[in-house]
Specification:
Number of strands: 2
Helix content: over 70%
Shape: globular
Number of helices: 14
Distance between the termini: 42 Å
Number of domains: 2
Largest sheet: 2 strands, antiparallel
Strand order of the largest sheet: 1-2
Oligomer: single chain
CATH architecture of the largest domain: Up-down Bundle
Length: 394
């Protein structure tokens, strides 16, 4: 009884902490709205920073969560994770999508103009496609979570989930659309790369699986769910495999771009790998390699998941800054990529606002876990899965 009271007290404490951090983030946003984007370390060339990185990261988590949840009902090899899909779908549909959407809103100097995305929609714009995908994640995620809850409560047969699972899986794959806002910019050679959609998909799966590993480990320790180390280890191996794909992409882009020894992409990558951006690049590379090793080791799963999220953050960070800090400028004479600029580091206001948005997402997830009881009957579901597997074998 005392242990239960202690856990409830700890939960309330985290609710208070996340609420306070959300208020601090709101205060930072009010300052930004009243004083302008001059409070950030963004400028005319480096117009995308921490907020857009946050958008990419949490859009990826939303997509990856849908792919994970739907895979349990589409592929036999993932069926053992059915009891945990309600949590994953809710994290993707609510916490992650809300965070991603808010990162876009705070990035806009005049957020009241966000309606222009709809009122003056340009259906040929990748930005519009991104908006549609994010809105679809909210709708699909909520419907999918509700269907999963109904199935757990016996109000719906499990076989009836195949259709919504297929829709959720396909929607998750469409996270590649986010990459189009970058890869279709022909004047930016580092972004104008056909490998970017694959990179965005792999990054989404790494970020989502890593976050779920951390969350499942916490909920397992608190007694909210029961998940074996073997299941967590399997998720770790999947995340490690996709992170290894990112390692190959990053290394391949750097090696191929530098090999030429000249050209536009060479100038940018030289700045990133050997110039002023080198510290960030090598942090990224070390984080990716370390994350792969830790995720493949059962004893270091949670640490590996944390490093994996850091690695994805750094991939997005360097993707933006290497190109934006080496812009194509037209001067008298031939056009060229101007290099040699310093690195971008977010301001205190940007950091405070980003932390507030993440805290709000965590707050919503905690409220959902408490109110919806998404971990209910986990042990019973596990027993049903085992019995079903034995029946198939018989």
């Amino acid at each position: 009884m005392n242990a239960k009271v202690a856990k409830q007290g700890g939960s309330k404490l985290w609710l208070i902490i996340f609420a306070l951090l959300s208020v601090i983030g709101l205060a930072c946003w009010v300052l930004q709205l009243t004083k302008g984007l001059q409070l950030t370390n963004l400028d005319n060339n480096n117009c995308w920073g921490l907020y857009i990185i946050g958008f990419m990261l949490f859009t990826g988590i939303a997509a990856g969560s849908l792919i994970f949840s739907s895979s349990a009902y589409l592929f036999k090899g993932m069926a053992e994770y059915k009891p945990f899909t309600r949590i994953a779908a809710f994290v993707g549909a609510i916490g992650s999508v809300v965070a991603a959407g808010l990162f876009i809103i705070v990035d806009i100097g005049n957020p009241e103009r966000v309606w222009n995305i709809i009122l003056s929609a340009n259906i040929e714009s990748p930005m519009f496609w991104d908006t549609v995908i994010l809105a679809a994640y909210v709708v699909i995620g909520i419907v999918f979570t509700r269907q999963l809850i109904m199935a757990e409560q016996g109000e719906k047969e499990e076989k009836a989930l195949y259709g919504i699972s297929l829709v959720a899986f396909i929607a998750g794959l469409f996270v590649t659309v986010t990459s189009f806002a970058f890869s279709m910019q022909v004047a930016r050679p580092l972004w104008n790369n056909p490998v970017e959609p694959l990179s965005f998909l792999a990054a989404a799966l790494v970020a989502a699986l890593a976050l779920l590993i951390i969350l499942f480990a916490i909920l397992n320790k608190s007694g909210y769910i029961e998940i074996s180390n073997e299941k967590l280890s399997k998720l770790g191996k999947l995340a490690g495999a996709f992170l290894a794909v990112e390692l190959m992409v990053v290394f391949g882009e750097a090696a191929i771009g530098l090999y030429a020894g000249a050209g536009d992409e060479y100038k940018i990558l030289n700045w990133l790998v050997l110039g002023k951006g080198a510290p960030l690049f090598w942090i990224e590379l070390i984080a990716i390699a370390t994350g792969v090793v830790l995720l493949l080791n059962k004893g270091t799963l949670v640490a590996g998941a944390g490093v994996g999220i850091l690695a994805i953050f750094m991939i997005k960070y360097t993707l933006l800054q290497a190109q934006l800090l080496n812009p194509l400028l037209s001067y008298p004479g031939p056009e060229g990529y101007v290099s040699g600029q310093g690195i971008y580091l977010p301001s205190i206001i940007e950091i405070g606002l980003a932390v507030g948005i993440i805290a709000l997402g965590c707050l919503l997830v905690m409220i959902g876990l408490n109110k919806l009881d998404l971990g209910a009957n986990t042990n019973q579901s596990l027993d049903k899965h085992r019995l079903g597997a034995r029946s198939e074998q018989a």
